[in-house]
Sequence to fold (750 residues):
Amino acid sequence: MGYSEAKYKKIKQSIKTNILKGLITTNEKISSESQLMKEFKVSRHTVRLAIGELVNEGWLYREQGAGTFCADRRESNLSSINENNKNIAIVTTFISEYIFPTIIRGAESYLSEHGYNVSIFNTNNQYNQEEKILTQILSSNYAGVIIEPTHSASANPNLKYYLNMEKEKIPYVMINAMYEELEPVSFSLDDVKGGFLQTKHLIDLGHRDIVCIYKTDDAQGQNRLKGYIKAHRECNLRLNPKNIITYQTENEHSKPIDDLKELLKVKADCPTAVVCYNDQLVLRLLDFVREEGIKVPEHLSFVGYDDSLLAELSEVKLTSVIHPKSELGRDAARAIIRLIQKNNQIDPGEDLSKLYEPQLKIRHSTAPIDKDLAI
Amino acid sequence: MGYSEAKYKKIKQSIKTNILKGLITTNEKISSESQLMKEFKVSRHTVRLAIGELVNEGWLYREQGAGTFCADRRESNLSSINENNKNIAIVTTFISEYIFPTIIRGAESYLSEHGYNVSIFNTNNQYNQEEKILTQILSSNYAGVIIEPTHSASANPNLKYYLNMEKEKIPYVMINAMYEELEPVSFSLDDVKGGFLQTKHLIDLGHRDIVCIYKTDDAQGQNRLKGYIKAHRECNLRLNPKNIITYQTENEHSKPIDDLKELLKVKADCPTAVVCYNDQLVLRLLDFVREEGIKVPEHLSFVGYDDSLLAELSEVKLTSVIHPKSELGRDAARAIIRLIQKNNQIDPGEDLSKLYEPQLKIRHSTAPIDKDLAI
DNA sequence: TCCGATTTGTTCGTATGTATG
DNA sequence: GCATACATACGAACAAATCGG
Fold:
């Protein structure tokens, strides 16, 4: 039998997970050995091996005749180190994505100025990775956590870990999106308004057939879509369902471009403008439309999102929604320090959260509609 | 059976006594399990129970296939904190610079797979900031450091900190550049060759007046400049001193563009090609030349460096030197873990360092010279 | 206080997998 | 490739402590 899949290790992990999720609290009795035998369909020996190691690692303690109980890890392990605990964890979905470095840097500079260390973690937008990281943070020694939620559009399977963080009095703040059930301190752009601004700008320029292309497995994209729809409603414009293109992390490389290609084929009611999930997507689409001989913005206007480096470096400078990257990072850092200092208990009146008002930076990728130049 | 006379406890006591009597010394092999079974006339399970507890108490350690050995208790006591030390510091000059996130991510993914935490620090390419960070790392609890040297071209005022890290047996590896005095384990691109490739490609295309624009306050830029000169030498080409533009971090926003502007004014012996310090610089220059009505690559060829996201997203796709970003990050991570495991002492024969062979990715920003199209 | 059910503690036997030299 | 050593896993039995009735 392979070591990595050792049964006793699975049992260990399971028990440890339950502790970290807060399902078993200090001095609470865990299942008896015979119960665990049934549950995992293993021999008593195997159960005892698992429990034995957890006892040695300080997670549990045993009392003959009474049972096995959850140990109080804080006292034994942390008390000595705790005073010097100046570690902050920053958890992002994609470190290398183009706007994150700026956010991280904003946070890092503020935190290091205040004597904190910054550890970074990467979920790759995957729940199991997020779980692993939360597990690690909970069993290590962090004073606070700045986290961007994974797959923020769906219900979160790791909710228990967040609740346990609250119980363990480890403050956390969320950036860019949030799990609303938790009502966390959060820092994010008003994405509904952002999507609204993107769309309204084009409507004001006379556009009527506006395609939107949004990634909808995170809350950001879903909210931007809401804003896109809202702008149409407010202007009493008919909304063509065909003009709404959505994609997920999994198919982000193919679907947006394929679907837009399909739309541009039909010359009747052809779109005159496109709002995009972010600047990077715009640039990829610009490549494609250039090959097709479509001119931007004369034939087709584009609005980006994030106002990233790309928006300024591209040939056609992008009209884009300004994302307060660096400021957001600093604000999140300031808030987490405040929470740490206040021992995670702030006055009800003091709302640390911030919803940033988006603004549109108008450059050269959008122009008034010109019917004579229709594609 | 009474607990006080538990067989496994007797075995424990016997082994412990032998160690304390000096009959078994550090790293000496004790009797195998089967020998102990015969000696004490007990089952294997009982022997394992005794040994298991002694392992947990730090008296022994086991090696599968080899045997069970007497542990060095002095060390284990001192390094009991170090056993759990799974923190790696990554120190970069500019976190948000466009290629760093990819390097960091390469390192982070490998390190987190191996159970390490990653802390990041940012020197902003300033010595005093580097000093602050090194101070902090030395006074905290890091198992290893991956660092990009600050101002790598000049003599380093923080050398003592590096020497002290060696004394404290904190392994470090350098990326992208190195302080040669230290002869560190390092991972970097062969920048001389990179600059050579940039230039040689243009010479091969028939260009003779080639401008180079390099940042020379780091070793990367200085080496690329060397490569640029070397390419001219090898091809027996006259080198026009006016064609060498250098700049520093402080004036990177103005000097490159101003100097190039100056050069292009003079119609006599006007350059036909430009090699740049990195892709980002190329894109900024592309903006400027576009305004001037200069076409790329017809009138003026450009070669970038790093093969970044920008090279593929720009309108004119950039010919650029490939930087092994992610691979370099992983390699550095692998090396630091190896150094930690080997307690910073590797065999002289085992050279962990790696100098990456650069390659040129040819895209559309370079073309054969065409005298008829001279600017 | 004692009983009985439950729970952990100790010990035996056996078998097979995996790493080392 | 082989013997040896440790690693994982099953089954069974009895001892000792705890707890509710």
Notes: Chain A has three domains: 3-70, 87-190+325-356, 191-323+360-373.
